Known about the structure:
By secondary structure, the protein is of the alpha+beta class. It has helices at residues 40-46, 52-55, 81-92, 123-131, 184-190, 210-217, 261-269; strands at residues 11-15, 19-24, 72-78, 97-104, 136-145, 151-155, 172-181, 197-203, 238-244, 254-256. It has seven helices and ten strands. Strands 1, 2, 3, 4, 5, 6, 7, 8, 9 and 10 form a ten-stranded mixed beta sheet that branches.
Amino acid sequence: MMPFAEEKEPFIIGQDDRVCAVYKPCGFHSVSQKKSDHSIVSWLYDQRIPGLKGSLVGRELGLVYRLDQATSGILLFAANRDSFIRLRQAQNELAIAKRYISISAPSECELPGSLPKTMKERQSFFIEELLSNKEVYIESFFRPYGPKGALVSCIAPEFASKSNKPITKEIYISKYIAAYKVMEVSNVKRQLPNGVVCLEVEIHKGFRHQIRAHSAWIGLPILGDMLYGEQDSNRLWLEAFLVCLPQQDGCRNEWKLYDGIKDIAQYLSI
C-alpha cells in the first residue's frame, strides 16, 4: 500500500490471536459520536467475519486507541478480553509505539494559548537535524482551549508553573525521526504547495491532536489542518502507518502499511 492511498472504505489488514488490525480512511470516526456518523467500530460490528464479532470486547469492540476523524491509518482491536487488558496496560507503560507520516507546510503562525506561543525560530534547526538522520524530541504538557475545550495548546515543561489554566498531569512526547523535502515537480503532481516537508513521527501514549499541535508549535503545521494551521487541502496529510506491540508468542508484533519516509519519494514520483 502506498502512503495516503485514496481508499474510501475501511478494510481488515489482518488478524491473529491478539488483535484485529483495521485500516481507517480519512473521514471516518474511530467511534461514533452520533447515529449518523461513519465509524470504524460500527463498520467492524457490521462485518460478518466468522468468529470475529463474538471475540471482540465491549461496545467499542476492544478498540486499543483512537485516531482523529481526519487522520487515516491503522487501528487495532483486541481479539479477546485478556488481550485488551494486556494491551491497555502496555499502552500505559509506553510499550506500544505508533508511527505517523505527515506532510507539513512551514508557517509563521503562533499556537494560541501555548507557552511559549511558538517554537518556530527553531524550525530550520529541526529540519536540518532530521535531514542529518538525527532524531528530534518535542515535549509538552497540554491545555484544552476553545469551544468546549476541543483544541489544545502546548505548555513547555519549564513554563508549566506559569500557566494560569489547568494543564495535563503528564508530559507528552513526540519523537520526530526523519524528514524529506518535497521537490517542486512532485508538488505539481500532487497539488501540494511549494516548500512542504514530509515528517516521520513516533508517539507512545498520545493525547488528543498531539502530533497536530506539536507540529504547529514548531512552525510546521500539517497540510490541510485548519484547526492548527492555515494551508487548506483536500485532506489532512497525516497517516498512522505503523504500530509496534510488545512481543508475544504466536502473534505479530508489528503492523504496517508501508515503510514510512522511505516510501514517500516513490509515492511523490508517481
